[in-house]
Amino acid sequence: MEAGVAQPIATVAHVHLSSRPLVFVPLSLAGEANAPLAAMVGTSVDEPELLIVPQPRDRALRFEFAARLARVFLDYLASFPVSSSDDGPFAADSPQVLVPNRAGLAFVRLLGRSTRFRRATGPYPVDPSVPVLGRWLTWFAERSEHPGSSSALAATEALTLHWATGQSAFEDNNLAALMGWIEPPPGVSGAAAARAAEDPLRWPPAGPATDPTFDNEVLGPLIRGGSVSALERALASQLEPTWGLMFRALATLSALPAGASVASRWASDCDAYAGFWTYLAEDGLPQARRDGAVAAARRLAQLERAQASYDVARSFDDPLVMAQYRVTGEAFAGTVLSVDATRRITNDKGNLVTRPLVLVQSSDPVHLPVGTQVGAPSRPKQSGTVLDVTSDLVTVELDKGFGRGKTPAPGVLPSPGEPITYSSVLASAIRGPALPSADETPWTHGGPPTPYVPSDLDAGEDWE
Fold it and tell me: 18, 34, 237, 286: which could form a disulfide with 116 (CB 3.0–4.6 Å)?
């Protein structure tokens, strides 16, 4: 607020940005449970595709919209082929879906649930592509919950991961206001640009909700009047400003260099995509409405481990992220005063082993007790233990990452005068709980679950 412009809170990009993401800006009808109204979708800022539902309360028109959207999504997915290898399915690259905000991801999840159980035969049949779209939308929604995944991103969340504004986190959900803080026009403060972004005539909401004034004065009469061309023009006017903002946000994020761990996380996204693509190719069932007790606990534990690993990776990639751990005393930075590279001790097994000592002088508040495991971002494969903390001096005993010889090779250990950071927040310290198999689900949690088979109830209407 004092500077009048957003401030960087990261020095590198912590998300992967595809060279050809699918940008998806949805709109839904106010007062209805996920009734799609319109969407602008595509991979090029100059070639958006506008899809509308002339009467959102008409079930047949809603599923026609879903079929048109399925064509766009499935054509995009087809451009990311999956091949087979000795290690299983493999994808060299993966699709990426970008929406304006967290509410856009919620729309993706609900639309996926509304379509993945539909059937191409029987009562109320839909186009065969609709349930396939629903399963993919559900997959993207679930990947968006996986910490560190970039398969489905909300533009506002990706931006606030890298910049802090002078407004509240709730106000940061407005993409136009957020971009006003990050890239205000010349001579205009971020606060003024954010206030201007609150004008719904100039910057309509970034979806999926529409402005109430637009609903009452424009949308309602056009839907009742039945003029499809006029309705298309009106809805395009609501979507086009956000469409341009999405590509501005993408360009702003792309200007940051990628963090060191981003590539490995994107490789995990590619593996997940290849696995789900293969599952669907083998006539995989739609995702169940609810997980069983063990599956839910296993998923929660997986997400917690992924969040912890992601936090560690970000801090090792970025000194600005590491700063928060330095403030809390979980990490410290300083200068190497001396290194005892030839120190040898007898371990618990009676063997003589090399255990170098690194003496660091730090002005940070060091609250790490003796015996704490630490690692250095500058040497991610090297770890040690805090041996002593005296005033502004910290002694670290290294136990891994310097080779097997009696004397470490030159350059492997830190050098006197070298700046260094040690952190106690390590991925190796993350442990998950021991969970039973699904067949051993205790009776207190419902007992072993029955095999999931989609029912007529699953295929019931979610839009009404």
Answer: 286
